Amino acid sequence: MKKIVVCGGHLTPALALIDRLQKVKDLEILFFGRKYTAEGSQSLSAEYQIITSQKIRFFPITTGRLQRKFTRFTIPSLLKLPFGFIQSFIYLILHRPNLIISFGGYLSVPVVFSGWLLGISSISHEQTVKPGLATRINSLFVQKIFLSWAKSAKFLSEEKCQVVGNLFRESIFSSRTASKDLSSFLRKSKNLILVAGGNQGSHFLNKFVFANLDLFNKFFLIHQVGTVNYHGDFDMAKTLKRNNYFAVDYLGPQDFGAVLAKAKIVISRSGANTVWELALCKKPSILIPLPISAGGEQLENAQILSGAHFAKIISQADLSPTHLKKAIDEILENYSDYQSSADKFQKTLPKDATAKLVRYILSSI
Question: For 3-34, how does the pLDDT look when each residue is reduced to its tens digit (9 = 90+)?
Fold first, then answer.
């Protein structure tokens, strides 16, 4: 039986690939990932919960990373760096996969590098416009780099690059939810706004929503708080009892698709996969890029949709109730123009990335 290892920090495209690969006979998928959401947290990561629920073997990697600001976890994180390489090396020796598939993120580096030392081939898929440090390091050791955006190639070894677009699960187009409570809320929702901070969540956006709930009195609001539960954010959200407010820690692809189908406007960070899905679902948006994202990648992601004229950008430093209300009002007043621009841009996106990647994988193992 052939074996492949899937690793990296971007769960959404990894799940899209896994969905397809699970249909292949005589192929075992192993997932190398993080069991917990963040340093010092005991909250199980979304990837651990989803991957194990699909009966895929999950191998936890404990490694460190270079943090962008000094915290009480900085030194312990640096001390963990060797452990990630040792763990990856041992796992790979024991299971000898035919191929490693990386989806970026600091955790993928020890896996790809250990694979290279052992003579195990690797490929990578990069979702962001400006690749992060992990992908740039991995590019030295992988055979092929698949890209979502053509302009990413200038940061990497262009001879290794192939532009295929981003990977997505077909359930993103589903209008049915897997949650009865969410389904009930969606049925009664009018003028729905989704506020989303990504899988892990954004404490900054969560605090803003908690402090400014009255700003959304004329709307129904779904608030995706995140799985990390920073400072008890999800616990706080569950105490808010308003008929027009619904909080959830994580939206799976099917639920996310159903919410996007109903939402009039999305307010969110601008991670690579979020931006792709907003474009794919033609959703007018207000994007608040994470200011400390690697190399300003979230701002560059947001500028793609802003440049296509169906998203507005508000910097975190400038976010205020006044600025947000002005942005919401401007989108609503010109909604047909925003929808038209989104529709035109969506037609330019390649939509067969998963199939192309699967064909490459099956021809390589």
Answer: 999 998 888 999 999 999 999 999 999 999 99
Instruction: Work out the burial of residue 127: count CB atoms within 10 Å of its CB; fewer than 13 is exposed, 13-18 middle, 19 or more buried.
Output: buried
> What CATH code is carried by the domain that includes residue 42?
3.40.50.2000
Contact in structure between 67 and 82 (CB atoms under 8 Å): no
Are 206 and 246 part of one and the same domain?
Answer: yes
Domain that holds residue 19: 2-165+351-364
pTM here is 0.88
